[in-house]
Design brief:
The complex is a heterodimer of chains A (about 230) and B (about 220).
Chain A (H helix, E strand, L loop, with lengths): L6 E5 L4 H12 L5 E4 L7 H6 L8 E4 L2 E4 L1 H11 L11 H18 L1 H8 L3 H26 L12 H7 L2 H11 L10 H12 L1 H4 L5 H21 L1
Parallel strand pairs in A: 1-2
Antiparallel strand pairs in A: 1-3, 3-4
Chain B lengths: L4 E5 L4 H12 L5 E4 L7 H6 L8 E4 L2 E4 L1 H11 L10 H27 L2 H20 L14 H5 L6 H9 L10 H11 L2 H6 L3 H9 L6
Parallel strand pairs in B: 1-2
Antiparallel strand pairs in B: 1-3, 3-4
Helix pairs in contact in B: 1-3, 4-5, 4-7, 7-10
The chains are: A alpha+beta (about 230), B alpha+beta (about 220).
Keywords (chain A): Cytoplasm, Transferase
Subcellular location (chain A): Cytoplasm, Cytosol
Function (chain A): Is involved in the conjugation of reduced glutathione to a wide number of exogenous and endogenous hydrophobic electrophiles.
Chain lengths: ~230, ~220
Amino acid sequence: MAESEDVKVLGAWPSPFVMRARIALNLKKVDYEFIAETMHPKSELLLKSNPVYKKIPVLFHKGNPICESLIIVQYIDETWTSVHPILPADPYDRAIARFWAVYIDDKWNPRMREYNMANTDEERAAVAEQIFAGAKLLEEAFQTCGKGGKWFGGDAVGYVDIVLGSWLGWIRVTEKMSGLKILDGDKFPQLAAWADRVCAEEAVKSVMPEINKMLEFGATMMARLKAASSAK
Amino acid sequence: MADEVVVFRVWDSPFSYRVELALALKGVNFRRAEEDLKNKSSELLLYNPVHKKIPVLLHAGKPIAESLVILEYIDETWKQNPILPVDPYERANARFWATYVDDKCLEILWRACWTRGEEQQKCISEAGERLRTLETALEGKKFFGGDTIGFVDIVVSFLTPWMEVLQEMARIRLLEEENYPRLCRWVRDFSSCDVVKETRPPREKLVAFFATLKPPN
């Protein structure tokens, strides 16, 4: 067990970004204090520790704030080095892992929101095609990164597992709300099996919110977004 | 050669420039593979099938895409003249500012130079705020990387000469000395580094190139 070094995570339960920090700390067996952010309005602590973005998560370690989930996960990996490496050892493999993390966050996951916000069947069909094209790439990436192992990280949960795994709850919410089967076991067997595996993994399970709670939260958020966009 | 280094690039891209500057800083020999973005090579499409974009670094036959990912790979592969700090907290800070530049500065700075009228005024105002935030990262330091050029300096290198040329063409001045003394000083210090002088595209060539891109009316 790593000694407690005054590690705190400022966050909120619905956020997949916050989940990443917590999964990484769990994998490293680092004890931490979870501080629930008030959000509306944003707390003094959040505004002070992340003045640039004013967003969660913020990781506190030895009094220093670290922001941005991918940066936090890498910080955790580079600080607690003797337990469960998160990024691969080889520089090329690390580059590939980083590449897919950026792809997932910048290109693939935004499609889910696009799908939810689409107003016509044509729009939905077009976005669905992009979602499936992305899932196909990730199914292939699973083979390349995982090298035959159970995870993107190979034999152990790694960087891409954390990055993509943290979106699973919301992907499932999108599937339930829209009726679109994204992680289709027929189309993407490796990805679908991996998704079940990730959700059952101890380090993830303990911080993944319960689906009904997420559905309720998702519905409220969607209503707010749609009202805002139609008000424009 | 088994460990040949190739950079798929275009001469005017600030993104492929980042990669070339990093390799030059480390004294790594590499071959430039110039791309015509209107007629992309089969190699580029092979090496970056997902995005089909430059830059791509090819090292010993293995391709890497995305400039920030490439920079980290370069730093981890060639250990001389480190680009990122050793300390994890300082590394986190460097990564933070690099992604801030990419996510929050690039596009708005570009749009401030290419839009007109009311939209331009909005962009200029927003760009100003972002630059003000970026300026804070230089407090007490010559370069973002400290005494020598580092990760963030490489990432923000588009400020000179690209942004200088674009501002001149748009007849706007975003980086005023009195508002951004640290950033203006950084531009001078960065520009006077030998490795920068030797690797950056010629200003006149950029002027001629940007003149061929028409801004919207």
